[in-house]
Amino acid sequence: MPSFRALQAHRPTGRRSPAPDAASIHVPVARAMVDCAVYSEGSRLPGKYTHAAALSKVRELELGGIDAFVWIGLHEPDDHQMQAVADVFGLHELAVEDAVHAHQRPKLERYDDTLFLVLKTVKYVAHDSVAKTREIVETGEIMIFVGRDFVVTVRHGEHGGLAGVRKTFDRNPASCKLGPYAVMHAIADHVVDDYLDVTDLVETDIDEMEENVFSPNSATEIEHIYLMKREVVELRRAVNPLATDLQRINTDHNDLISKEVRRYMRDVLDHTIKAADRIEGYDEVLSSLVQAAVGKVSMQQNTDMRKISAWVAIAAVPTALAGIYGMNFDHMPELHQVWGYPAVLLVMATVCTVLYVNFRRNHWL
User: Fold this and answer.
1) Where do you find CATH 1.20.58.340 in the chain?
2) Which of 55, 87, 210, 219 is 20 to 30 A distant from 283 in Cα terms?
3) Is the pLDDT of residue 10 over 70?
4) What pLDDT, on a 0 to 100 scale, did the predictor assign at position 358?
5) Class of domain 26-297
6) How much is the pLDDT for 24?
7) Rounded to an integer, what distance in angstroms lies between the CA atom of residue 314 and that of residue 309?
8) Distance (Å, whole) CA 194 – CA 120
9) pLDDT at 93
10) CA angle, corner 161, sides to 155 and 162, nearest 5?
11) How far apart are CA 10 and CA 352, in angstroms?
12) Neighbour-count burial of 32, counting CB atoms closer than 10 A to its CB (0-12 exposed, 13-18 middle, 19+ buried)
């Protein structure tokens, strides 16, 4: 028979076991994975793969002399999910850290035989008027890891999805045959086309704002111009640095990127420069609008001050006369005359009328 002390040792205490730390719970990579596909000989192979199985399939095909690559897409992965992918594909830890934490400027970096490209995505926020919105351009990020036989894309933000890009790519065998760097071109081309679309819409807002500033009967709100200028600055930060990096693709990485893909990338570079030139022009226009708006406000203030001064001058005449004859003295001119009071009123009216006519003639009223 077990002793009393032994029974006490095995007796349940009624305490709950401590809850596991949330940081120690690892969410599987599949939760962050948008799509994972294997491409071979210009077409996408059927079936669903994990990131590790997809790379194994590619390496198996390559052993048989067949060109193949894998494209895996992730949306806002956490540290564990991104590290699991990095371990399989051999991604550099510095690039992995940038991909997880985001908030990077557009850039292109090379780690051995892997290119790491950061793109800023932009989205135009629809609105009825600039006066009723607080945001015009929304930004996100897409990071692209490109190796010899793989592409890993990491997207941050609610817009900028690549489903349409992938569908178009899947329907184009010629692009698939160009390999993983063709995927990089397809994504960059899609992002830069969005730059042009957004700049077109922003230009419409700026034209409306310009018309409002130079309209003679409209109120000028300088705050709205500053809002638009802030959004244009955000656009410039997304677009301008990319042009320099795209130029490097065509000059510094010939050993990685085929001649055909570099031709396509030059077209993307041209569109990027076009978008950058537009944005630079918008910035100059908005700076001019700020100066024009300030000048218009100053003119309105001067006009208001002239009107106020004119009415004060007109009101000063009856005020002075009423003040003089309001004093309690017996010996004052015409004080005891019957026509004295009407005469003072007539003088007041005459002088006020003459002042009013002169102010109107001089456009003070």
Assistant:
1) 301-361
2) 219
3) no
4) 81
5) alpha beta
6) 54
7) 9
8) 10
9) 92
10) 95
11) 107
12) buried
The first and second tokens of residue 202, run together, are 């922003």
Q: Is 176 helix (H, G, I), strand (E, B) or coil?
A: helix
Longest dimension (CA), the chain: 135
- Give Cα 313 to chain centroid, integer Å: 53
SS3 for 311? helix
* Position 334 pLDDT exceeds 90: no
Enter the tokens of residue 17: 């076991």
Residue in 117, 142, 139 with CA at minimum distance from that of residue 195: 139
Place of tokens 């009107």: 307
pLDDT value at 150 more than 50? yes
Element (H, E) at 114: strand 114-124
How far apart are the C-alpha atoms of 267 and 232, rounded to whole Å?
A: 24
Looking at domain 301-361, its CATH architecture is: Up-down Bundle (1.20)
Give backbone dihedrals phi and psi of 34, rounded to 5 degrees, phi first. Answer: -85, -45
Q: Report the DSSP pairing between strands 43-44 and 150-156.
A: unpaired
Q: With a cut of 70, say whether residue 338 has pLDDT above it.
A: no
Per residue in 37-66, pLDDT (tens digit) is 999 988 899 988 898 999 999 999 988 888
pTM for the model: 0.76
Q: What would the two tokens of residue 274 be?
A: 């076009």
Strands 107-111 and 68-75, bridge-based pairing? unpaired
Q: According to CATH, where is 3.30.460.20 located in the chain?
A: 26-297
* Per-position DSSP letters for 89-105, written without gaps between them: HT--HHHHHHHHH----
CA dihedral 283, 285, 288, 289 (to 10 degrees): -100
Q: Tokens for 182, please give them.
A: 């063709």
